[in-house]
Amino acid sequence: MSKSDKDKALIKVIKNVVIDTSVSIADTMTGGSVSIIKKIAEHTNDFYNEINKQKLYDFYMGIYVLDDKSEKKLSKANLAFLIKKFVQDDEASKTKLYSKLAINIAKSILSDDERIDFISTLSNLTSYDINFMRKVYVYDNFKIKSFKNKDEQLLNISETRDGRQIKSLNKLYSNGLIFEPNRGKAAHQYYKPTNYLCEFIKLIFDKHELTPDAIDEIEKNKADIFFRSNHEYISNKDLYDEKIITPLKELGCSVIINTDEYGPYNDNADIYIAIDNDTPFIKNDDGEQYLSLIIEKNEQIFFGNNHAPTTRYNILASYIFDDSDSKKQSVLSIRKSLKGHIKSVASIF
Predict the structure, then answer these.
(1) Cα→Cα distances 152→144, 263, 266, Å
(2) CA end-to-end span of the chain, whole Å?
(3) Considering only CA atoms, which of 347, 252, 286 is closest in space to residue 314?
């Protein structure tokens, strides 16, 4: 090493890199650092050519693996633009995504302009941005454990204080991939995927890559019916298991029984049912007593009085307490009532 360079750490590192890559540079080279930089520039060109050869090979092999016999159309201009953007992209981890995009846009009915646009979008995003975009998509399409609903999930992402995530949110927004559905409102402002995101993400990911498991999240347990385990149910559990839960299962419904403190954060259902805890039995105008049920299509019945529904769905109390030899008929009547109530609620928009 020349005397003038021996105390220059950066030049030492650069020279070592050059030597390690089989480019010999004489220590006594005239011009010192200037000549070294020139040599590095020449070698860097070769170095990147080799990198690009490997990248293009990986890109080609990615297409080779994904390709099938289905008809594909990709103009020379589109292919040239895709390869140009791919070669310019410094992230080798995106190679597979470029291969998938090439295959999927070639199989699509997208116009040339739309294809160019999707290629540009992939080029504009880092791997981190893309994985964050995938999280936004999953949070909008699945119910995740530890959140009470999708709004809370998306709010959790949108209100992040993580610097990289904030950068990604801005990047996704500027590329037309997310929007604010509640923009202008005082509260609950969060981002949701645009239709453009939903179309784009399916061009670069397979279906199994767009699930909670794929991003290390856990989807809520799913059932047809979530039955709320409140004080009234617990105090008469055997009765309600026999006269409500069993008939629901006999109707072919899967049932989860859980509490309002824990359940909605871990369980998800199409229909939510609870016995009215305050007034479990009421007397109607016909003089008969009825069991009063709350039946809703979402989990809001569990979160505060602001969301407490006023509609009640009744079952004749005499059916519930029938312990006679003819109670089989009462069970059939209970089942019929439950089926009718659930159908009625399910049809509500």
Answers:
(1) 10, 16, 14
(2) 79
(3) 286
Residues paired with 219 in a beta bridge: 144
Q: What is the pLDDT of residues 75-108, one digit of tens each?
A: 878 888 888 898 889 898 999 999 999 889 988 9
Q: Where are the chain's structural domains? A: 1-66, 127-215, 222-346
The arithmetic mean of pLDDT across residues 204-219, rounded, is: 97
The model's pLDDT over 232-253, given as tens digits with 9 standing for 90+, comes to 999 999 999 999 999 999 999 9
Q: What is the DSSP letter of 215?
A: G
Query: pTM of this prediction?
Result: 0.76
Looking at every residue in the chain, the average pLDDT score rounds to 83
Copy the structure tokens of residue 27. Answer: 């220590």
Query: What is the amino acid identity at position 282?
Result: I
Fold (topology level) of 127-215: Arc Repressor Mutant, subunit A (1.10.10)
For 2, phi and psi rounded to 5 degrees?
A: -70, 155
Q: Are 230 and 264 in contact (CB under 8 A)?
A: no
Residue 242 is classified by DSSP as I
Q: Is 50 exceeded by the pLDDT of residue 28?
A: no
Q: What average pLDDT score do residues 145-156 get? A: 92
- Predicted confidence (pLDDT) at residue 204 exceeds the cutoff of 80: yes
- Angstrom distance (rounded) from CA 225 to CA 256: 6
CA angle 75, 78, 81 (to 5 degrees): 145
Q: At a CB cut-off of 8 Å and minimum separation 6, what does 178 contact? A: 136, 169, 172, 191, 192, 193, 194, 197
Lookup result for tokens 């995927």: 193
Task: Show the tokens assigned to 212.
Answer: 């909670």
Query: Residue 186 and residue 179: Cα distance in Å, rounded?
Result: 16
The Cα 181–Cα 190 span in angstroms is 7
Cα–Cα distance, 130 to 120 (Å, whole number): 13
* 189, pLDDT greater than 50: yes
Mean per-residue pLDDT for 177-201?
A: 88
Q: Which amino acid belongs to residue 160?
A: T
Identify the three-state secondary structure at position 289.
Answer: strand
Task: Tell me what pLDDT residue 233 has.
Answer: 95
